[in-house]
Amino acid sequence: MKRQPTIQDVATLANVSTATVSRALNSPDRVRETTRDAVQQAVQALGYTPDFGGQALASGRTNTIGAVIPTMDNAIFARALQSLQEELTTMGVTLLVATSQYDPEREEQQVRALLSRGVDGLILIGQARAARVYELLEGRAVPYALLWTTAPSGQQLSIGFDNSAAAAKLVTQALQLGHRRFAMIAGITKGNDRARARVDGVRATLADAGLTLEPPYLVEGSYDIEQTVGIARALISLPEPPTVILCGNDVQAAGVLKAVRQAGLSVPRDVSVLGFDDIELATAVDPALTTIRVPHRRMGRMAAHLLIGWIKTGQRPDSVQFDTDLIWRASLGPPPA
Amino acid sequence: MKRQPTIQDVATLANVSTATVSRALNSPDRVRETTRDAVQQAVQALGYTPDFGGQALASGRTNTIGAVIPTMDNAIFARALQSLQEELTTMGVTLLVATSQYDPEREEQQVRALLSRGVDGLILIGQARAARVYELLEGRAVPYALLWTTAPSGQQLSIGFDNSAAAAKLVTQALQLGHRRFAMIAGITKGNDRARARVDGVRATLADAGLTLEPPYLVEGSYDIEQTVGIARALISLPEPPTVILCGNDVQAAGVLKAVRQAGLSVPRDVSVLGFDDIELATAVDPALTTIRVPHRRMGRMAAHLLIGWIKTGQRPDSVQFDTDLIWRASLGPPPA
Questions:
Q1: Quick one: closest CA in B to A98, which residue?
Q2: Fewer CB in a 10 Å sphere around the end CB: N or C, chain B?
Q3: Which chain B residues are within 8 Å of A99, Cβ to Cβ?
Q4: Where is each HTH lacI-type domain found (chains A, B) (predicted)?
Q5: Which residues contact residue A172 at a Cβ distance below 8 angstroms, ignoring those fewer than 6 apart?
Q6: CB contact set of B165 (below 8 Å; sequence gap of 6+)
Q7: How far apart are CA A172 and CA B317, in angstroms?
Q8: Cβ neighbours of B285 in A, within 8 Å
Q9: Residue B233 and residue B219: Cα distance in Å, rounded?
Q10: Does A258 contact B283 at a Cβ distance shorter than 8 Å?
């Protein structure tokens, strides 16, 4: 790369001090408009971008938040990140996102990479990960928030909801309609505390009703429509097929709808299908999915405010737990007679 | 933050030189396994993350690629990014992603933010953006690749496909089935050269057949299912409704399917619906969408290889243009009699 223009170059061109340049860039409301414009013009003319190292030294911050999410596929995390980013943007903070593909080792690498780029804080999804990742974050005193989960100990900032209780709502509703033969296609529970909690919620609620959920009626699979089609085909071909299929999320539920359609059967007449998340896909499919509405946008916005608050004050805020709603749509009906 | 552990701390704990630590981290195949393990243990024990500044000075690189994409919603860019990241991971390079919400100013901010974090190269979507962004990149000699597009001049590295020719394929197919009354719900074309090119391809092909496409049969809208439902409702309520509706992408096409369903009409019996992208949604909906298969994964993989090659050699590689396929599924049929 060529020599990067420095803050001194900008100051010279704009005919102001470097302190003024810094102020114009970091606290634009604290300088006059003409000064701000002059600095802005010099910045653009020179192609200046604030130097990471210098900025970090000056303010102790990089004004960057990192997020490591499991995947960008299927828009599962997209809406929360969108809201997170919109809030951060209004605060002048940049969001950088990396993905782990649900792989704990890769997640750890991404955390280290973001830390070495000097992020001020981190967003992680869920709670299950190697202790050394938490030790790294605590040791470096980097503020971080866990989304989509409720951290049990009160020792961490979590911004999420009770996955187990949410899944239980779906079961309760199906029981009230008279369903007794349940199946569940869960997400891969290894390293995924959200998927695990949803299975636990389903099984506990069924147990209260004197029912069990065991293989082959309980299967784990990835959050992928086509892979789920195969799993669902096997379920509806069982000698005693389930009358309702719970899914780890809406993506899997869309796969079940497809498998039922391909088998010449009908939802919910022959089998009911339940999703989780209420992403846009839930109403794009036909019939629309009965599902759990996850507070995507509220989690995103709240994460921005709490994490930035922590960074500014040095005080870890209290965790936040949101309620979830069951959204009843056409994919749930009574069991076949 | 507390004092960050240094490479010297790691070297001391692992009982090796700092040069060895650096080699173990950057070229693990060049050190013995026992040394590598010792360094790795020290890294984890100390919570060491390579210091951005030091690493950049040492090798001139940060081993980070930045990408600015319009949105994480709807998985439009997810599959390409996934492949891009998988390839980069095998090369030991981290991908950081920021989103612009289709806003040119925000895109520019994100580019500057990524540059100031010291990325080695950048991935951008499409070609339409302020000249000063390109001047900034050229001035700083930062390798960058434009995806989803074909840069016209040969002055830039583009890895994409011909959006106009792809859209034309859909029209040609519909014309051959006997369709004469076309409508198109396009993406917002302002600042989006891909959306613009698709409209151009459609209109040019229609013109060759002696047909025109003007409002109210040509409408722009955002890539959002619910907003598209409203637009589609108006189209199918026209005194002379279209017999086929082309869409800017599959997300919009899913919205059209929904509107047609809500109106008590049937696809493709009453109206055919055409998508673009072939994301997973295209086969999750019923009927499945006839659409253009965009080479998501090939673009992602190719971008990783060409951009890293450029960074390593300093030579800008030639642009790559992929073919696109029309995928014929149930949403396209002959016009109503």
A1: B96
A2: C
A3: 81-82, 85, 95, 97
A4: 5-59
A5: A205
A6: B201, B324
A7: 59
A8: 284-286
A9: 12
A10: yes
Å between A313 CA and nearest CA of chain B = 12
Q: Which residues of A touch B98 (CB under 8 A)?
A: 85, 94-97
CB contact under 8 A, B53 and A53: yes
Our CA-based measurement puts residue A308 at a distance from the nearest CA of chain B, in whole angstroms, of: 14
What is the set of domains in chain B, with CATH numbers? 7-59 (1.10.260.40), 64-161+295-323 (3.40.50.2300), 163-294 (3.40.50.2300)
**Whether the Cβ atoms of residue B151 and residue B159 lie closer than 8 Å to each other:** no
pLDDT at residue A56, rounded to an integer: 37
Distance (Å, whole) CA B146 – CA B156: 8
The tokens for B128 are 């339409």
pLDDT of residue B54 exceeding 90: no
Round to whole Å and give the CA distance between A317 and A147.
14
**Cα–Cα distance between A6 and A15 in angstroms, integer?**
14
Residue A93: strand, helix, or coil:
coil
Residue ranges of alpha helices (H) inside B177-249 are: 193-208, 225-236
Verify whether the Cβ–Cβ distance B97 to A101 is below 8 Å. no
**Cβ-based neighbours of A123, under 8 Å, separated by 6 or more:** A65, A66, A67, A68, A69, A84, A144, A145, A147, A303, A307
Inter-chain contacts counted by CB atoms under 8 A, chains A and B: 178
Q: Say if the Cβ atoms of B78 and A77 lie within 8 Å.
A: no
Q: Show residues of chain A in contact with B116, CB under 8 Å.
A: 49-52, 55
Would you state the pLDDT for residue B60?
Answer: 65
Is B136 in Cβ contact with A72 (below 8 Å)? no
Could you tell me which residues come within 8 angstroms of residue B7 by beta carbon, excluding any fewer than 6 positions away?
A: B18, B21, B22, B48, B50, B51, B54
Spatial distance between the Cα atoms of B217 and B210, rounded to a whole number of angstroms: 16
The first and second tokens of residue B139, run together, are 């001035």
| Closest of A303, A259, A250, A307 to residue A280, by C-alpha | A250
Contact across the interface for B85 and A99, Cβ inside 8 Å: yes
| Residue with token string 């003007």 | B214
Q: Cβ contacts of residue A117 below 8 Å, gap of 6+?
A: A52, A62, A64, A66, A96, B52, B62, B64, B96, B117, B118
How far is Cα A41 from Cα A14, in angstroms, rounded to an integer? 8
Tens of pLDDT along A232-260? 999 999 999 999 999 999 999 999 999 99
Cα distance between residue B286 and residue A251, in whole Å: 15
ipTM of the complex model: 0.73
What is the chain B residue with the closest CA to A255?
B284
Chain center to CA of B74? 11
pLDDT tier at A20 (50, 70, 90 boundaries)? confident
- The predicted-structure confidence for A88-129, as pLDDT tens digits, reads as follows 988 889 899 999 988 999 999 999 989 988 899 999 999 999
Peptide bond into B268 cis (omega under 30): yes
Cβ separation A74–B74 shorter than 8 A: no
Nearest CA distance, A209 vs chain B (angstrom): 34
Question: Coil, strand, or helix at residue A209?
Answer: coil
Classify each residue of B133-170 as buried b or exposed e, where b means 16 or more C-beta atoms within 10 Å of its C-beta: bbebbebbebbbbbbbbbbeeeebbbbbbbbbbbbbbb
Q: How far apart are CA A273 and CA A250, in angstroms?
A: 10
> Is B283 in Cβ contact with A284 (below 8 Å)?
no
Spatial neighbors of B65 by CB under 8 A, at least 6 apart, are B84, B88, B93, B94, B95, B96, B119, B120, B121, B122, B123, B304, B307, B308
Does A280 contact B74 at a Cβ distance shorter than 8 Å? yes
